[in-house]
């Protein structure tokens, strides 16, 4: 009697068992004679964590040794994201157009990955870090530096085409764009004089030369553009330059630009209106008499969220919105009480000497000749601002929409915190302008990859933060082992929420048995 081997799938339909033949493997005697069936089982077992151990076994006759273990999960994940958003293809095209023979795309990927995993200098990245990661190409040190020059020269092309690809993947739009700036300082005294300069340092390092960096981000939290300005340029000037750039690079009918309080001048707002755009900007409530008119509006606030309530008033063709946060009010009141307590103590012990020069104290004092006392009228005046801030806009959005849009500006602030802490933008050790700009673009691309993952995790309902998920992914290691004289590369078990990252980007976790394409020495 002839026997045939088939692979079948069993499933249920309305509590009845059904079978579907997936493929016919042939006659059993032929498969057993030439060992084909054993080869098939061995091959399929590589994709099963359960049967791989059984076949390669834990038996007494097995000889198992480990050659090395390297980082693997993060490089596998971000390589998938890198390919999904088309950065590899984009860089290859730019290199082909420029007739570049060197592997700048792999150097750029390695530098971006290093920002995400374990930020190091380019020299340390080349000398040590790449040796600890499985899945990176062997690249010469000078390729990393020349890749920075390559990035600097093609910054706008990369951002424009990346924006187009992300728009296709995520339905991005720039109807509302958030803008903010930060500064990043240099170590040493020899940074390029054209771009490095002394200015207001948001790093509190006024003793160091710096650059100013502006970041544009969509309402989905995805960075779409960055600009690098001289270190002594004021925020209002950077805002002016970015306004023009938005209109030039994003030919769309409507843009609402959202910016912080110290960012905007009247000249900027006129420029926005002249270009046919709209704005939502913060107002310095304590310094704007017009905004302070909001404090006298009678009637209850409209509740937007538990910690956000609003009132508004139309003035000179603009809408002014007063925002009130009860939790922030309690914090402001507590802070003032602590300041007044310290002030009273110092007045009793030291007298007014020196206190009038301290801004935190002087605003509560009334000075008469050689004496000073706490002025309760000034205290009451200060309390009117507790938990409140003002917004100004020329849009037709509702109070609630304006307040929520402005509140989303925190995404840009969070992005800068990521750049400066997790991605370690600062301090910078590069000297010439091209390398400085290239380094900042590497950090920008790393931020794009991390922001894309964060967006996808949220979209799939994952409640863990992107940092927590990435920590679990980083626990996936690759090990080269020898089993009975045969080399196999395997990965460690998935930990925690690691699989959520792969589900979020629409791919599978790496197989248990990996393809070893690199030098195993």
Automatic annotation (TrEMBL):
<dbReference type="InterPro" id="IPR002559">
    <property type="entry name" value="Transposase_11"/>
</dbReference>
<dbReference type="GO" id="GO:0004803">
    <property type="term" value="F:transposase activity"/>
</dbReference>
<feature type="domain" description="Transposase IS4-like">
    <location>
        <begin position="177"/>
        <end position="449"/>
    </location>
</feature>
<dbReference type="InterPro" id="IPR047654">
    <property type="entry name" value="IS1634_transpos"/>
</dbReference>
<dbReference type="GO" id="GO:0003677">
    <property type="term" value="F:DNA binding"/>
</dbReference>
<dbReference type="Pfam" id="PF01609">
    <property type="entry name" value="DDE_Tnp_1"/>
</dbReference>
<protein>
    <recommendedName>
        <fullName>Transposase IS4-like domain-containing protein</fullName>
    </recommendedName>
</protein>
<dbReference type="InterPro" id="IPR012337">
    <property type="entry name" value="RNaseH-like_sf"/>
</dbReference>
<dbReference type="GO" id="GO:0006313">
    <property type="term" value="P:DNA transposition"/>
</dbReference>
């Amino acid at each position: 009697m002839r026997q045939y081997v088939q692979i079948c799938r069993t499933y249920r339909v309305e509590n009845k068992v059904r079978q579907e033949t997936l493929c016919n493997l042939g006659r059993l005697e032929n498969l057993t004679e030439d060992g084909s069936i054993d080869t098939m089982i061995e091959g399929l077992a590589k994709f099963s964590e359960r049967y791989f151990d059984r076949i390669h076994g834990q038996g007494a006759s097995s000889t198992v040794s480990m050659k090395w273990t390297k980082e693997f999960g993060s490089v596998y994940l971000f390589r998938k994201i890198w390919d999904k958003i088309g950065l590899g293809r984009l860089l290859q095209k730019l290199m082909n157009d420029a007739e570049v023979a060197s592997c700048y795309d792999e150097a750029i990927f390695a530098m971006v990955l290093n920002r995400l995993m374990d930020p190091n200098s380019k020299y340390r990245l080349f000398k040590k870090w790449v040796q600890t990661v499985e899945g990176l190409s062997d690249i010469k040190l000078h390729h990393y530096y020349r890749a920075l020059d390559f990035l600097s020269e093609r910054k706008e092309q990369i951002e424009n085409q990346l924006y187009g690809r992300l728009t296709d993947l995520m339905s991005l739009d720039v109807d509302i764009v958030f803008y903010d700036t930060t500064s990043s300082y240099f170590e040493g005294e020899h940074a390029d004089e054209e771009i490095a300069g002394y200015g207001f340092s948001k790093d509190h390092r006024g003793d160091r030369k710096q650059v100013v960096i502006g970041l544009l981000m969509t309402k989905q939290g995805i960075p779409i553009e960055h600009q690098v300005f001289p270190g002594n340029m004021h925020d209002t000037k950077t805002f002016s330059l970015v306004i023009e750039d938005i209109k030039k690079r994003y030919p769309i009918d409507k843009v609402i630009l959202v910016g912080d309080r110290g960012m905007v001048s009247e000249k900027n707002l006129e420029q926005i209106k002249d270009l046919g755009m709209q704005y939502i900007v913060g107002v310095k409530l304590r310094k704007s008499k017009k905004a302070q008119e909001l404090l006298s509006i009678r009637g209850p606030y409209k509740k937007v969220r538990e910690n956000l309530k609003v009132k508004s008033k139309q003035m000179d063709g603009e809408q002014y919105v007063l925002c009130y946060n009860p939790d922030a009010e309690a914090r402001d009141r507590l802070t003032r009480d602590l300041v007044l307590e310290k002030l009273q103590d110092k007045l009793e012990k030291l007298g007014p000497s020196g206190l009038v020069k301290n801004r935190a104290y002087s605003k509560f004092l009334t000075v008469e000749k050689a004496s000073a006392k706490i002025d309760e009228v000034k205290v009451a005046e200060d309390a009117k601002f507790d938990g409140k801030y003002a917004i100004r806009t020329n849009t037709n959005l509702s109070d609630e929409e304006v307040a929520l849009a402005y509140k989303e500006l925190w995404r840009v602030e969070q992005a800068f915190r990521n750049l400066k802490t997790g991605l370690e933008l600062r301090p910078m050790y590069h000297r010439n302008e091209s390398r400085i700009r290239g380094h900042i673009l590497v950090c920008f691309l790393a931020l794009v990859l991390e922001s894309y993952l964060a967006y996808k995790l949220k979209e799939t309902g994952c409640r863990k933060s992107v940092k927590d998920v990435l920590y679990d992914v980083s626990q996936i290691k690759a090990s080269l082992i020898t089993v009975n004289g045969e080399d196999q590369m395997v990965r460690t078990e998935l930990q925690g929420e690691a699989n959520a990252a792969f589900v979020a980007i629409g791919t599978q976790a790496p197989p248990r048995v990996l393809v070893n394409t690199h030098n195993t020495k």
